[in-house]
C-alpha cells in the first residue's frame, strides 16, 4: 500500500467520524501498522498539504493535520459510495457532459481521470456520460479551469440501455475484477484484536476503493440479473462491518497516544 493511500483511507474511513483531525504521530503510527514507513508517510502528508487536501493544525499544543473543506466534501462522497448498499432507483435518464480542454494533453488527462472517478464513461461519438448526476461535477471541472456544459435527460437513440451501457463501460473486465475481489476476500477471525482488525479493514477498504474508479454504480436496469458486483458488495460490506468495532478501537488508541511501538 502506498503512503498516500494509507493516509487518505485513514481520513476517509475513520477520521470523518472523529472530527477530521489527527496528531501527526497518530497518522504515522497507524500507517506503520500497514507497513508504511514514517518518512514515506511524512512525504505523503506534505504533498496532501501542498495539493490542498490537508492543513496543519495545532490542537491543545499537539501538532496535527486536519482535512480541508475540499477534502471533507470529496472523502464524504467517496465514503457514501463505498458503503452504499447498492445503486439508487434509476429514472432512466442519463447525464451527458461535454468538456473543452483546448487541446491540452495534460488537461485532457486530468479531465479523464476526474470524470472517470466521478462515474462518467466515454460516450461513443464524444463526450462523457453517466446514469447519475454527480454533485461533485461542477466543482471538480471548475477546479481544472476547463469550459464544459451538460444535459440531463432521456436518450432517444439507444433502444436498449443495457447494450448502450456495455458500449461505454467494459462490463466484462469489471465483472472479472469483482470475481478477483471475491476470490481474495479475507476470512475475518473470531474476535480479532484492535491492530489485526485495523490492518484487515484498511486493506479491505483499499481494495474496494479502487472500484470507485472502475464502476460508476450502474443501475440494475442495465446490468445482468446475476451481476457479480452485487455479491462482491455484499461480501465487502459484511466484512467491513465485522471489523469496524475493533478497528475503530485501534484508531482511538492511536489518537489518544495509547499505542506502543510494538502495537504499530
Automatic annotation (TrEMBL):
Listed Gene3D superfamilies: 1.20.58.1460, 3.30.70.2650, Winged helix-like DNA-binding domain superfamily/Winged helix DNA-binding domain (1.10.10.10)
Boundaries of every Transcriptional repressor PaaX-like N-terminal domain copy: 3-59
InterPro entries (alphabetical): PaaX-like_central (IPR048846), PaaX-like_N (IPR012906), PaaX_C (IPR013225), PaaX_trns_reg (IPR011965), WH-like_DNA-bd_sf (IPR036388)
Name this polypeptide is given: PaaX family transcriptional regulator
GO biological process: DNA-templated transcription
Organism this protein belongs to: Ornithinimicrobium pratense
Transmembrane segments: none
Domain named Transcriptional repressor PaaX-like central Cas2-like: residues: 88-145
Transcriptional repressor PaaX-like C-terminal domain mapped to chain residues: 169-252
Pfam families documented for this protein: PaaX, PaaX_C, PaaX_M
Amino acid at each position: 500500500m502506498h503512503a498516500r493511500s494509507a493516509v487518505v483511507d485513514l481520513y476517509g474511513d475513520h477520521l470523518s467520524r472523529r472530527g477530521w483531525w489527527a496528531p501527526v504521530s497518530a497518522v504515522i503510527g497507524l500507517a506503520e501498522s500497514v507497513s508504511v514507513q514514517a518518512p514515506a508517510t511524512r512525504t505523503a502528508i506534505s504533498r496532501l498539504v501542498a495539493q490542498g487536501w490537508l492543513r496543519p493544525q495545532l490542537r491543545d499544543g499537539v501538532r496535527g493535520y486536519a482535512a480541508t473543506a475540499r477534502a471533507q466534501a470529496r472523502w464524504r462522497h467517496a465514503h457514501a459510495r463505498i458503503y452504499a448498499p447498492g445503486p439508487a432507483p434509476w429514472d432512466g435518464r442519463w447525464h451527458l457532459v461535454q468538456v473543452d480542454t483546448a487541446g491540452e494533453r495534460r488537461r485532457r488527462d486530468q479531465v479523464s481521470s476526474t470524470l472517470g472517478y466521478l462515474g462518467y464513461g466515454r460516450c461513443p461519438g464524444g463526450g462523457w456520460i453517466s446514469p447519475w448526476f454527480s454533485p461533485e461535477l461542477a466543482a471538480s471541472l471548475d477546479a481544472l479551469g476547463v469550459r464544459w456544459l451538460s444535459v440531463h435527460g432521456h436518450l432517444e437513440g439507444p433502444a436498449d440501455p443495457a447494450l448502450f451501457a456495455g458500449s461505454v463501460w467494459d462490463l466484462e473486465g469489471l465483472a472479472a475484477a469483482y470475481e478477483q475481489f471475491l476470490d481474495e476476500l479475507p476470512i475475518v477471525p473470531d474476535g480479532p484484536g484492535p491492530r489485526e482488525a485495523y490492518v484487515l479493514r484498511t486493506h479491505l477498504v483499499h481494495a474496494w476503493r479502487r472500484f470507485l474508479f472502475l464502476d460508476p454504480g450502474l443501475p440494475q436496469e442495465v446490468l445482468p440479473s446475476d451481476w457479480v458486483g452485487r455479491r462482491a458488495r455484499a461480501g465487502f460490506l459484511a466484512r467491513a462491518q465485522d471489523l469496524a468495532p475493533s478497528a475503530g478501537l485501534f484508531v482511538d488508541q492511536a489518537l489518544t497516544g495509547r499505542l506502543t511501538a510494538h502495537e504499530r
